[in-house]
Structures are given as structure tokens and as C-alpha cells.
Amino acid sequence: MTSSATITTNIPARLDRLPWGRFHTLVVVALGVTWILDGLEVTLVGSLAGALKESPVLRLTNAEVGLASSAYLAGAVLGAAFFGWLTDRWGRKKLFFITLSVYLVATAATALSWNVWSFALFRFLTGAGIGGEYAAINSTIQELVPARMRGWTDLVINGSFWVGAAAGATGAIVLLNPAVIDPELGWRLAFFAGAALGLVVFLMRLWLPESPRWLMTHGQPDRAEAIVDDIENSVYGSAKPAEQPMRTQRLRMRRFTPLSDVFATLFRQHRRRTLVGLVLMASQAFFYNAIFFTYALILTDFYGIRSYHVGWYILPFAAGNFLGPVLLGRLFDTLGRRIMITFTYAISGVLLAVVGWLFAIGALSATTQTIAWMVVFFFASAAASSAYLTVSESFPLEIRALTIAFFYAIGTAIGGISGPWLFGVLIDTGSRGSVFAGYLFGAIAMLIAAAVQWRFGIAAERKPLESVATPLSFIDHDGDASAAPGPRRGD
Length: 491
Description:
It is a single chain. By secondary structure, the chain is mainly alpha-helical. The chain has one domain: Growth Hormone, Chain: A, CATH 1.20.1250.20. It has helices spanning 11-17, 22-47, 49-54, 62-90, 92-110, 116-144, 150-159, 161-175, 183-204, 212-217, 221-236, 259-269, 271-293, 295-302, 310-328, 331-334, 337-360, 366-393, 400-415, 418-428, 432-456, 465-468, and strands at 2-9, 249-254, 474-477. A 3-stranded antiparallel beta sheet has the order 1-2-3, with no helix packed on it. The longest helix is centred in the N-terminal third of the chain and has 29 residues, at 62-90. 56% of the residues are buried.
């Protein structure tokens, strides 16, 4: 609903001119840890697959392991949609506490599962919390980090998923070793450990402010100004630079954005960006979730690796995934989004097809398979992270969280939920050729995404968010209605 009240503000310019400071580092740590939690959750189920199958209580089959993974992703899809909608209405800060609380309770409950259906239900609720986190956290980070560092920062934060993956793999090595602890108790303790980490994160977030960009468009300009003053004081200290003229924007404040405006923005004004976002998200979701959720099953069923040794193979896999965004991330801000996103998607698809063929003909061992995945996912991790970057910076401020949720939900529903279940079924056939067919499908999807990005991708590197996508509440710059930023209609 639109209000008649207007404000003139330079808040976006003030936030973008800031040098990197302790404030930004703390934001990245306190909010970026969401991806560490997600990585921990995904790796726990992957690394614990053998223990869950051998559990005298659960006795899961390969298909049921895949079902539980799909339940987690289904929860993430619905959680992202629901909590993303609330994030744009209620604010970023409220929601990243609510979603973290959902995660905490559900993860602890998973440790108490008594059959396959209770396990799948608690995984669904855990996914709902994580899915909601994606919308609230991505939008907050985008709105607080200076434009010239946004690409690298976003990729590294999304890549930190693999820090959690490494932590989950390391924990599984200990907790699933029968010489150390009963595996039936070990897998339950692993989920309790995830809940304990979430509690630490909850306390870390208590000091974080609301997004000033959100406040300035939702009728709280004075609070937004006060928060930016505090941020500047924390970054500059006593060395605050002299006041300089900065371009201002005149905005019409609103309490919320009607869904009709959301629809018009996605499917009329920015329909090409919507196509790009959907293709990027769906292809990487299938690529990642299908392969990673079932990697432990590949190791145990095709290479005879004991379940409590799986973690040793996940660790180097996670290292390659984390190093990709860290080492390639700055190129997304220098060479640009269009070139780097196209390259990382295309090379990931080609490499997946090659590795899948080598697996099909039996040319790989467990060790060489892991080395091959390290190379593939060095590029694929940067590609997947860039998909989140693309959808979180390509749409207007007022609907940012909901659009992040929309693309995450639709992309994951199309490419992610079906992937783990499908690969679980393919692995159960015992046929390397069947598994290769799944790999080949994922490779083709990545190549199609690369082509779409090359054709329709936009250059958002080093640009203020308000220049990449005009706010829906925008009136003019400095009273000049002809100076409206942003793209042409239908881009």
C-alpha cells in the first residue's frame, strides 16, 4: 500500500561510500554464518547416510535418505516463500531471528527422531528455517555492503556453506566411529551440535541493526538516519571525512508492497531478469543437490567406503568448493558479472560431463573421484554463489527479500527437490550408466544456463543497488524526474 509521504535521502550514497570496516566484518560473520549452518545440515545428512541406514531405530533405505533430503529442500522452498514475504513487510532484523529460532528447534528435534516419517518432518521444518534465512540474510547483506565490494563479499559468504560442510564432515568422522562412540548415539549428537551452534549465532546477532534502506522506504527515515550515523562513527571513528555533496533520492514511503506490484515487476518490467534468475537457480540447484546429497551413497555403494570414513572424502570436496568463490570472487567485480557467470556455469557443465563419463567406465577410484569433484566444484561453487548474487541485486529494494525467496523456492523446487530423490533411485539400480545419465542431465542444464546468462545477463558490478534496479518508491534524483536510474522496461 502506497503512502503520500515522501522523503529526500542520501542514505544509499552514504552506505556505498564507506570503506570496509569492523562493522562490515561483523555483519558478514553474524549473518553469513547462515550458510555455514546450511552446509553443516546438508553434510550431516550426507555423511550420516550410512549410519541412518544402519540405525536399529530408523533403518533408512537409500530412497528414504533421498526422501529426507528432499523433505529438507521442500521445507526450504516453502520457508523461503513465507518468510521472504514477511521480511519485506516486517523488516530484515525481526525475520532473521524468527527463522533462526525455527532452525534451532527443528534441528534439536531431528536428534530425537524415532522413525523415517518423524525424521523427514523435522528435516522439513529445519529446511523451512534455513530457507527463510536465505531471504532475510541475503537482502540484509546486499543492503549494508558497499557496492564496489558486493560481488566478492556475496560469493565468499555463499561459499562459506562449505566451511559448514567441512565442520559436518569432521564431526561425522568422530561421531560415527564405533571405536569412539556408538553410531546410533553419534548421529543424534551431530544434530544437537548443529542446534548448539545456532544458539551461538542467535546471540551474535543481537547487536545487528535493521537495514537503513528498508527503514527509509517504510516510514522510519529518522531511525534509518540514526543507524547510518552510528555505522559511520564505527567505521570512521575520529577520522570521519569532511561533508561532501552526495546525490539524493526522493522516495515515496510505503508500509508494504502489494503482490500485484511484485507480479508486475517480475513478469513485465524485469521479465528478462526473471528468466535469467530462474534458469541460474534451477540449474545450480539440481547440479548441487543431486550430486552432493548423494555423494556419501556413491562412496559407500560403489567404492565400498565405510560410513564413518566418508567424512575424509567430504573434507577435500568442501575445500575445493570454498576456494572457488574466494579466489574467483573478485573477478566478478572486475571482469564483470556477465563474463564470469557465463564462464563458471559453462566450465562446470563440461567438467561434470567428463567426470561422469569417467565414473561410468570405472576409471575412477574413491580418491580420484574426490579429486575430480574438487576441480569441478571449484568452478561450480562460484557459479552457484553467483546465482544468489544475481537474484538478490537485480530487483527493487521493496521486494528484494520476496524475490530472493521466489527464485530460491522455484529454482529449488524445479532443480533441487527432485535431484536427491532421483539420484537415490539411480544409485539403488547399482548401474554406473544410470548414475551417469543423471550427471549428464545436470551438465546440460548448466550449459543452458550459461547461454541464457550470456544472452540476457546484466552488468551490475560496482553499481549502487538503486542504479541496478530503480526502487518502486522512487520519484526523482535531486528533484530531477528525468534522472531516474535503472533499466528499461522489459529488461
